[in-house]
Write a structure and sequence with these properties.
With 208 residues, the protein is α+β, with helices and mostly antiparallel strands. Strands 1, 2, 3, 4 and 5 form a five-stranded antiparallel β-sheet that branches.
């Protein structure tokens, strides 16, 4: 006799089969491979903007009545440049210690201040640097610069007093001090004038 299955029994069998399948899957009975996971790291590169520092030519700025002193980083730096030029007999390297041409054009009264600065003042200054080197003697390269003495005799020069259209402070007989093989040697700076509170050389040797 062939057994007969009722719809109720068929439904129960289907539910049982589904339950067993799910149980096996939860216990690892059904093999499944997880999709590989790829982790991507994002790298951010930050490029800093380049900063350019431009130092303005002080001679292009207006004069002030600030009285210079014989101290300070700027003054010391200029005097060291001049001293090194004297020791090594390299006049061209000392130009930064000299009164700027741009300031001279605002200060002096003549038809062509720039030409006068180049053809007379700077030309004489370079000769004076070479002469100062000779004062250090045969062993000039052994010289050690020990400082500058600025006398307290500076005066305020008003327009028109020294063929000038602009005012400035002026001081004579500044002393540059060196030691050469244990001996003290002094080299005078005949004249310095000011620009915006700083001393600059205008005549290292005799005024001419």
């Amino acid at each position: 006799m062939t057994p007969r299955f009722t719809p109720t029994r068929l439904l129960s069998a289907s539910v049982l089969t589904l339950t067993i399948t799910l149980a096996l899957a939860s216990c690892g009975g059904t093999s499944s491979k997880a999709a590989p996971t790829t982790t991507s790291e994002s790298t951010t590169t930050t490029t800093a903007a380049l900063t350019t520092t431009t130092t303005a030519d002080p001679g292009t700025l207006p004069q002030t009545d600030e009285k210079p002193t014989g101290t300070g980083a700027e003054f010391d730096s200029r005097m060291k440049v001049l001293a090194n030029a004297i020791i090594t007999n390299t006049p061209d390297t000392a130009v930064s210690a000299f009164f700027p041409v741009s300031a001279y054009k605002q200060t002096k009264k003549n038809t062509d201040p720039a030409a006068d600065w180049k053809n007379r003042l700077i030309a004489n200054f370079k000769v004076d640097v070479a002469d100062a080197n000779k004062k250090l003697g045969a062993n000039a390269t052994n010289a050690v610069f020990t400082g500058v003495t600025v006398p307290a005799t500076a005066v305020w020069v008003k327009p028109g007093e020294e063929y000038n259209v602009g005012p400035y402070w002026r001081v004579f007989k500044v002393q540059m001090n060196f030691t050469v093989d244990g001996k003290n040697v002094q080299i005078p700076i005949e004249s310095m004038i000011s620009w915006r509170g700083q001393w600059y050389v205008v005549h290292l040797g005799t005024i001419r």
